[in-house]
UniProtKB/TrEMBL annotation:
The chain crosses the membrane at residues 187-208. This is Family with sequence similarity 187 member B. GO terms for cellular component: membrane. The gene is FAM187B. It comes from Ursus americanus (American black bear). Its main location: membrane. Keywords: Glycoprotein, Membrane, Signal, Transmembrane, Transmembrane helix.
């Protein structure tokens, strides 16, 4: 329990922290989080939650949400009991260049781990700007992940795999136009080839099968 602010009188506002949640990874280094809630104490009364003390007042709205702390952890693995839920073929938005993935059964109150191509995505990596292509959403404890590049994304809840995602990029317009242009060019080449073949066949027919009028002229000349 850490006192953080005096309200001007004897009231004190502070954060009361819950116990640490379980580690989000087993067998290797992971992370765990704990939540802190805003409390106000007015001696000699007992501390009460800020939202209850303030009632309908809209002050300190940001303090109404749980705070979150994260630290490193490492625990042994146990036998998995959850079935894998697979989600595939999510399309990355053309407008935003990204897509939000939601981990089923995950919440701010449960340990969550995301992986991209088997590489863990950590809060430490996000805070140190090491993970440029993903964003863990802190307001829901990492239940949602914003991704900007295609990869195989997996989420774990309480160290157990619950979902797999495979977002696909939207094809670029120049690429689509290029494919259409190649198709049109192939069609034109085919039409040109057919025209050449038909022209050659017509020429051969004229050479080996003279017209009736030409044969009549040749007979008259012999007489």
């Amino acid at each position: 329990m850490g006192i953080t602010l005096s309200l001007g009188g004897e009231e004190l506002i502070f954060t009361r922290w819950e116990p640490w949640q379980g580690c989000n990874r087993c067998g290797e280094r992971g992370e765990r989080k704990r939540l802190g809630y805003c409390y106000i104490m007015e001696p000699p009364q007992k501390p009460v939650p800020c939202w209850l003390y303030l009632g309908d007042m809209k002050l300190w709205s940001s303090r109404m949400r749980p705070e979150m702390q994260v630290e490193a952890c490492q625990v042994p693995c146990q036998t998995s009991t959850l079935d894998v839920i697979t989600f595939d073929n999510f399309e990355i938005s053309e407008d935003s260049g990204s897509v939000w993935l939601t981990c089923p059964q995950g919440s701010i109150y449960r340990p969550i781990l995301w992986e991209a191509n088997n590489i863990p995505l950590t809060w430490q990596g996000q805070l140190s700007n090491q993970d440029y292509n993903t964003i863990l959403e802190p307001t829901n404890g990492g239940r949602q992940l914003r991704v900007f590049e295609p990869a195989v994304y997996r989420c774990f809840v309480k160290q157990e795999l619950v979902a797999r995602f495979n977002p696909k990029p939207v094809p670029d317009l120049p690429e689509i136009l290029s494919q259409d242009a190649r198709s049109v060019l192939k069609a034109l080449k085919l039409m040109l080839l057919v025209g050449i073949v038909l022209g050659l066949l017509g020429l051969l027919l004229k050479l080996f099968h003279p017209s009736h009028h030409k044969r009549s002229n040749q007979v008259l000349l012999v007489k």
